[in-house]
Design goal:
Blueprint (H helix, E strand, L loop, with lengths): L2 H8 L14 E3 L5 H15 L6 H4 L11 E2 L1 E5 L5 H17 L5 E2 L9 E7 L4 E5 L3 E5 L5 E5 L3 E8 L9 E3 L2 E4 L5 E3 L7 E5 L4 E4 L2 E16 L9
Antiparallel strand pairs: 1-13, 2-6, 3-5, 4-15, 5-15, 6-14, 7-8, 9-13, 9-15, 10-15, 11-12, 11-14
Length: 232
């Protein structure tokens, strides 16, 4: 990482989500840079261990079809990284209040969905625009599949690398598509995070041009508030 990038990431930054908190919350420096680097190293170590799904992490995940994304995913079960889960869960609680979403969030110990450590490699890494509670795609036999994850209420994505020509990668912008049609590029620094309602915010990752993009993804579960339904 360049000195210029470090200075940019470590100084106070105006939020690109300002004025759009009802749809997405940007958390600059949600983790410190040291925490993000340490988390990335721990996750790299897990990929080298047997029994942690590392074989699946070495090839594009197929749940949404290889025409939908090109990523490498390691799933980290609930018994692992409990401190990291707690940090994300508490961040989601704060985002729930800041965004006025009013979701009924399940207790931490009831959030069993696996953390996902996701890797995008240039030049093929990308993820098509989607909503995290439903997917329609075609499998390897060209049959249409429909998946729903209705208990996900808040999604969180944490950057573990820097998007910068002198950093870890270029391209690969994580983009939130607002209901107005406006597109926001998520904060680009390791340790930055975005939180958003999983049931309606469309988002995508553009093709990487160079380098390797790493991020952490999790979904906090619960019951949507009766008044919080929004158009997808």
């Amino acid at each position: 990482m360049s000195i210029a990038m470090e200075r940019y990431c470590n100084r106070p930054r105006s939020s690109v989500c300002l004025g759009h908190e009802s749809e997405v919350i940007c958390a600059h420096n949600f983790m410190s840079r040291d925490e993000a680097v340490a988390a990335r190293r721990r996750l790299d170590q897990l990929t080298e261990m047997r029994g942690m799904g590392f074989e699946r992490a070495r090839k594009p995940m197929m749940e949404a079809g290889d025409q939908f994304n090109q990523t490498q995913v390691l799933r980290i079960e609930s018994r692992t990284e409990t401190g990291l889960r707690a940090q994300l869960w508490h961040g989601a609680q704060r985002a729930n209040l800041a965004g006025g979403w009013r979701y009924g969030i399940d207790r931490l110990e009831r959030n069993f969905e696996a953390l996902q450590s996701v890797r995008y490699e240039a030049p093929s890494g990308w993820y098509a625009e989607h909503i995290d509670t439903r997917f329609t795609w075609r499998d390897t036999m060209r049959r249409q599949r429909n998946d729903t994850y209705s208990s996900r209420v808040i999604a969180v994505i944490v950057q573990l690398t820097d998007r910068d020509p002198r950093g870890d990668y270029t391209g690969g912008e994580l983009q939130a598509v607002l209901q107005s049609g406006k597109v926001l590029d998520a904060p680009p620094c390791a340790g930055d995070a975005i939180f958003f309602p999983a049931a309606y915010l469309r988002h995508r990752v553009q093709h990487l041009r160079s380098g390797s993009r790493r991020n952490l993804v999790w979904w906090i579960k619960g019951n949507p508030h009766p008044d919080s339904g929004r158009r997808a």
